[in-house]
Automatic annotation (TrEMBL), chains A, B, C, D:
Locations listed in the record: Cytoplasm
Catalytic-site annotation from UniProt: C150
Organism phylogeny: Bacteria, Bacillati, Bacillota, Clostridia, Lachnospirales
Claim: Oxidoreductase is one of the keywords in the record: yes
Chief localization: cytoplasm
Name this protein carries in UniProt: N-acetyl-gamma-glutamyl-phosphate reductase
Documented EC number(s): 1.2.1.38
Gene source species: Hespellia stercorisuis DSM 15480
Pathway(s) it belongs to: Amino-acid biosynthesis; L-arginine biosynthesis; N(2)-acetyl-L-ornithine from L-glutamate: step 3/4
Primary role: Catalyzes the NADPH-dependent reduction of N-acetyl-5-glutamyl phosphate to yield N-acetyl-L-glutamate 5-semialdehyde.
GO CC annotations, alphabetized: cytoplasm
Gene behind this protein: argC
GO biological process: L-arginine biosynthetic process
Domain of life: Bacteria
Top-tier EC class: oxidoreductase
Reactions catalysed, as given in the entry: N-acetyl-L-glutamate 5-semialdehyde + phosphate + NADP(+) = N-acetyl-L-glutamyl 5-phosphate + NADPH + H(+)
């Protein structure tokens, strides 16, 4: 059994880690870290886990935790993992960081967009960007995995094959993203109240959202050039789900069949990426609760653009599910172990 | 492997059977029956099953089906199972009927409340009412199981221990029930449109809902007397979940500890019934996607009443999950096989 | 023009007062009181009022306010109005208190259920309980009106005619109430977050909710006897709306026509109470945004009970709308002035 | 009093016309046309109108209607108005058509996108495109007004000033639109069921939606050149509201102040267009139930694009409200008569 510790176990992403890992046959959760609920029963914070989890919440002591477990998940705000990790800890335990601390290779870009100083830039180089479908081999041998952001996972996977194959003009790429409200976390803030979100939709963080440079960096690697995009997130009245609608001008004269073939080249062997049949637009409900990303596209000959669409559960493939997928790779397990979650409909 | 056929596989309850059974390690689904979608790919009707189910939908031919499978689930409107079943079929195959046809022992009561003639009353006697927690032993040897209704499962389990122990005056029992909209099925009707249900709550079927006699019959067995109740269902703007709030006058002077002890007597060994800690009211979200029923109660000394509450996912414990639980019992499998579904929150 | 001051203008009930009063032809709002947002533009707190309201928020200074306006609305938590009001203020200005401070005539009952000491019990006697349909004449001459609670308005109006006419056994009355989330206010608390409320329903405050004694007192006056009821509120995933489902045993052998006649006797001349046609259950969506209460009932001959149902917008008839209705009466205006709000559907 | 007839009074847009016109002081509704509900009480179809509207529904007889009223609103699917209108009718009565029949000046474009033959192309020339803020003077003298589509109203008004002033490269314009579900109408179809829409978001009609040529034609007039855009609508789980997010490359080096000045030039005198303060993104909830369009923008210097955002109630400014605004202009009334609807929050 792999012994697991979770720092930040009572946020929504932490809760989803507990949901998935509590049913994972090779895992034992040893540490439910939550500063806000120390010594409280975990199942009192998340009553869905009543009679499933009996443990109480612990403090966020990474050094002590490193002696007790094989892998630590940090599901905390940016800055925390970066400030706690050190060589001694990394020599004892693997870390999968769900925050942004080790996602961006250029520390200046990180500090600029996140507005905080990076406390352990020396580990940025070895950290592996844990987008399993793209960096699978590197993840397997990693000590420190930077689990991708929710918007970024969906945005990158949706555009990756066309970026990689040079089909689209990367200077024209626009990502219009829509997210359910669990992406905003469990913090008690007026804008996240039921009555403020329900029957409402809005854009936020226009031209300034922190997931922008992460998407740009990864798609830049794929395209082999610097990429600068427009990225606009929107808040949608639903609990889970991210939909991205991406627009780009075609560089070549390609048919829908050719683009389909490109997507299939990259994803036909990928269990968790489903390229839908022609004419079917992805819907977030079809992937809810699962680790799938559903992708499709449409060529618009009138504008010479391709419209790419991707749908995903932000808490699963966009956070906890992908983190477990990374863990499976790092420990030599079947990549889909514990993640054979059938989407729930309705 | 148990070979399974589903008649009515494209309704919401049928879809939930597919979700659960497709992940059940001892089951192979051989027949996706759906009159409306014959020859269409099942995953085109439920895109969540894309790349999970490759089969096409078939007609509802129970006789042919009986030769091919070990168990048939009928997730169809009342009347269908009753009109198709016969001795030859029952000699070949077990049947779990999710409709109301074999739930009520008194055929006159059935015909009166449902307004249709029962086509095979000769099987009502042998049919076992498949509320596993109460009729477990009978289910194990049954050929024909009447899978309980959604409201009824929740209503009965919530009141059962107090009815059985004679603590409450059954003449005072009032069941005020609230259901998510999936209970109304997938039929295209104006009252079930998004804009009609969203931001709305209403009662319906007041004093006339068909689940009433089913609850009365079962609680009557428990109490050892004829039971007549008030039952009022309400439609709530959510996909899944049933909450029942039940009111009854106490016949004895009992403490909360004593009532808790009664609930524990019946349910402490039941995996799928969770009696919550004192003071915590059940919420449907805590059981969503799972086979759990969460129950609690509160004594009101001012009125000498006990308020009992139960929460459940109407498509799981209220339909498909309980049907699979029955199947597990009928085939000698672990009762919880395929049903270790952790509730999803949020 | 009637000069109006609002203390607590940035809560949901306060916001609704602003919505209604800003379109009231005889009213000028002079004071938007909000301790949390002093000196901020009101329309920054409620962007729906952009270019409609240009004022900034002020402190909650009732004494100063009393010199400037003709009527003060206090839309604040219990205790505040009771601690601020005094004879000098009441000699200058009329007060409509949307909190519970002056609703309950028995100060001991108030202090027991609310858990706070009443700071100005000397005004309880003269305060008029502002349920306009019942206390219209008293309201007209009142200096201090206690605006009824949301659950209570709906619960009382739904049962009032049958209680008054002695048709129902008051000892059997059970009120099962369901409310949208705006009733919980705009405070930033985890249980009111979108993801906690959405796709969820729960009971709360079982046998202990503070609106219980208010309903009991008023229905007691109607019935001419002490009344003790079971009252259970539920939180429903919608912004607005209260539905009550009330159960009572019939004391007399009455027909549906007779009960309809009783309702008509009390309400056929009431603009804001609509007794629906036979067989139609009230729905909260049909009154959304308006000052209407929709009422209907069903006799259940099997149990000898009558099921009464009432639907209302909790922020309008349950708070701000009724407060304006009271103001209209107190100032000799047309009772429906500013309240001719057509319900919005969908 | 202006006598009004509505053809299609029981669809959602028709219902909204009734809501608004029933409170309009200069209007009397004489004809509630609805083929589906002939002879049924209107308030039985829309119970919100109980005791407000007493009339029954009538057939869709435009010729007879033309003799009885001063203005006809057709809130019907495309094709109907075009097939009924003729010179005799237009000589007797003004027509405001909420369908697409007379919106597009190029009949070939209409027939190509809508897939039907236009039955009265002779009136296309005289029909005025009823976007009041742009074509106010022409509307005043029109016999036949083509009321703009919901997506189009929001899309055009949001981009119009920048298109008109030549600030943006029209070849780069991308409109990503999100709509509440009432835009899909009241037809009973599976994809519009509560359980299919709730907790879900999807794009639809990608690169093929019929509002595309309407936006292109109107923005083409503004820009003085042919315009071809990418337009992608999305279905959002809410009843009302449209949000558009529009992307375009800047042709000139402009500051945010300069763009703000351009918006103010066109809209500062417009009652129903609110250009928000800097940094505030429009939200559909802030305009719900009202005739407002809220607009704002953000320059992204990294990409040299401007992101424009507009929010609107699709049934009000996007349909019935704008139709009444047109009627007011056509009959010389105050333009905002009956439309001083304060947005409802929450």
């Amino acid at each position: 059994m792999i012994k697991v510790g979770i720092i930040g176990a009572t946020g929504y992403a932490g809760g989803e880690l507990v949901r998935i890992l509590s049913a994972h046959k090779d895992v034992e959760i040893k540490w439910y870290g939550s500063r806000s609920y120390i010594d409280e029963k975990y199942a009192r914070v998340y009553q869905n886990m009543f009679q499933i989890v009996d443990d109480v919440c612990m403090d966020d002591n990474m050094a002590e935790l490193a002696d007790q477990v094989d892998v630590i998940f940090t599901a905390t705000p940016q800055g925390l993992c970066g400030s706690l990790v050190n060589e001694e800890i990394l020599s004892k335990v693997k870390i999968i960081d769900l925050s942004a601390d080790f996602r961006i290779k250029d520390v200046k870009t990180y500090e600029q967009w996140y507005g905080i100083e990076h406390k352990s830039p020396q580990f940025i180089g070895e950290a592996v960007y844990g987008l399993c479908e793209i960096n699978r081999e590197d993840v397997k041998s990693a000590r420190l995995v930077a689990n991708p952001g929710c918007y970024t996972t969906c945005s990158i996977l949706t555009a990756y094959p066309l970026a990689k194959e040079g089909v689209i003009d990367m200077h024209t790429l626009i990502v219009d993203a829509k997210s359910g409200t669990s992406g905003a976390g469990r913090g008690a803030k007026v804008p996240n109240l039921y009555c403020e979100v329900n029957e409402n939709i809005k854009a936020y963080g226009v031209a300034t959202h922190r997931h922008t440079p992460e998407i740009e960096e990864q798609l830049g690697y794929a395209a082999g050039e610097d990429v600068v995009i427009s990225f606009t997130p929107h808040l949608v009245p639903m609990n889970r789900g991210i939909l991205v609608t991406e627009y780009a001008t075609l560089k070549k004269n390609v048919t829908e069949e050719q683009i389909k073939a490109i997507y299939d080249k990259y994803y036909s062997d990928e269990k968790f990426v489903r390229v839908l049949d022609g004419g079917i637009c992805p819907e977030t409900k079809w992937v809810e609760g699962s680790n799938y990303v559903d992708i499709n596209f449409k060529i618009d000959p009138r504008t010479n653009r391709v419209v790419m669409m991707g749908a995903m559960d932000n808490l699963v493939k966009g956070a906890a599910g992908q983190a477990v997928q990374n863990m499976n790779l790092m420990f030599g397990l079947k990549e889909s172990e514990g993640l054979e979650l059938v989407p729930m409909f309705p």
